[in-house]
Amino acid sequence: MGVGSMVSAAVVSLLLWFAGVAADASDHRYKINDPVPLYANKVGPFHNPSETYRYFDLPFCSSEKVKDKTEALGEILNGDRLVDAPYKLYFRVDQNSKLACKKHLTKDEVAQFRSAVTKDYYFQMYYDDLPIWGFIGKVDKEGKTDPNDHKYYLYTHIHFDVYYNNDRVIEISAHTDNNAMVDLTEDKEIDVEFFYSVKWKETHTPFEKRMDLYQQSSATAHHLEIHWFSIINSCVTVLLLTGFLATILMRVLKNDFVKYAHDEESADDQEETGWKYIHGDVFRFPKHNSVFAACVGCGTQLFALATFIFILALVGVFYPYNRGALFTALVVVYALTSGIAGYTATTLYCQLEGTNWVRNLLLTGCLFCGPLFLTFCFLNTVAIAYNATAALPLGTIVVIVLIWALITSPLLVLGGIAGKNSKAEFQAPCRTTKYPREIPPLPWYRSTIPQMAMAGFLPFSAIYIELYYIFASVWGHKIYTIYSILFIVFIILLIVTAFITVALTYFQLAAEDHEW
Predict the structure, then answer these.
(1) Which terminus has fewer CB within 10 Å in the chain: N or C?
(2) Which residue in 245, 260, 253, 274 sits closest to 511, CA to CA?
(3) pTM to 2 decimal places
């Protein structure tokens, strides 16, 4: 209970911290002619959103020295690298074809821009925390199929349309001028002038609803119908499993109980079969009790992590383009819930008569973090090699290591000590025999791998439609905002997983395989 209270208090503190961040940030109120922050974020090929680079990795110009914005941990983890943009947009001040800067492009820089235009590079900026997108150029194919005959152009004029309500910015969009382009087809030095225009328009949309525009992209009527179809599909799966399990529990087990009761009364010496035959082995401790306890501990922590993330999502913390909020929450909540893993793993390990609880605690701490760290090292090395924004700087890596060393590890140890001192004992409902019974030969489909495949198929079929939208959000341009539906699907996933586990466990015991 002490560990649970500690984690609950920490999560409440996290919620208050998020609220404090929202309250302490800029109030987004401006007077006429006030400078409104415009940050250039990143560029990358449109068809591969995971591949992004710093804005000034392309040879754009700037009228003054480029300054990096101080970013939070979540923003860096999200791959955001904000710098001052070359355009100055003052509140409610219209601009018409204003010169931003000039740049003399060398042959190599022209080739660099041409390569980016060929790959449909887009740029992303943030104006008063509102996202802006646009393409940096276009390819004019003129009906020709040979790439050598194509024309490549760089846009040099951006039009900003900004909507305001009293003293707040509500919406912004950017579009490029097809009449203001520079030809990049040939490898030759050129002088480029970048211009921008700003048009301010009044709107009656309240500031509190300015993010609704981005939420609507994933909450249209068509998308909602698909989400509800996913839920109905999952509910049908649950109903079928419920009927299936009810049949097992009410008919098969009832018949088994009647038969075994009759056998005990009439023929005690008759040979037992089925699950009753192995009642003396079914509660035998697993061979690898330390790995088993560590898996249960890590799984419990990840379940708690998912639960707290859903709570934060349902109270509105992860609104669209709240840069890095999700990654910050994942890091902080995972660190704070490590005590749950230590307590659960050590308690179970001691119940399974384990003796080296310290080694079990180390295994629990490394079972999830170890493979995650190795995967991170590989991906971060690749990102560094390509100079992508996904590469984490050394300072961020040090911060994460310190969080793991100063928060995650101590809480894991405290949870382990609490679990060791809980004095909980495993109370089996029947006595375990001294020697295990031999498991009869089983068909191939009852081996471990086919069982794992069968156990994963139904839960996957219950959530696969929702998974598509999640993957489209992680590796695509779509935004996932319907957390309430995702929470419903998560509950259905838990129910389906529990049901299929009970069913497969019964079949395994009925086949006299006691190593469940």
Answers:
(1) N
(2) 274
(3) 0.80
Q: Are 49 and 133 in contact (CB under 8 A)?
A: no
Length of the chain: 516
- The chain-wide mean pLDDT, for the chain, equals 83
Secondary structure class of 17 (helix, strand, coil)? helix
pLDDT of residue 262: 60
Cβ–Cβ under 8 Å, residues 95 and 197:
yes
Measured CA to CA, the distance from residue 333 to residue 399 in angstroms comes to: 15
DSSP for residue 82: -
Dihedral in degrees, nearest 10, Cα atoms 123, 124, 127, 129 = 180
Look at residue 362 and give its three-state secondary structure: helix
pLDDT in tens, 25-75: 467 889 999 999 999 999 999 988 888 999 999 999 887 788 888 888 888
**pLDDT, tens digit (0-9, with 9 covering 90-100), for 332-343:** 999 999 999 999
**Alpha-carbon torsion, ordered 384, 389, 395, 400, to 10 deg:** -100
**376 vs 260, which has greater pLDDT?**
376
Q: Which residues contact 285 (CB under 8 A, 6 or more apart)?
A: 352, 353
CA angle 95, 97, 99 (to 5 degrees): 100
Which structure tokens are listed for 109?
């820089």
Q: Where are the alpha helices (DSSP H) in 25-138?
A: 73-77, 107-118
Of 136, 86, 141, 82, residue with least CA distance to 109: 136
The two structure tokens encoding residue 443: 């068909």
Give the tokens for residue 204: 């009656």
CA of residue 119 relative to chain centroid, distance: 27
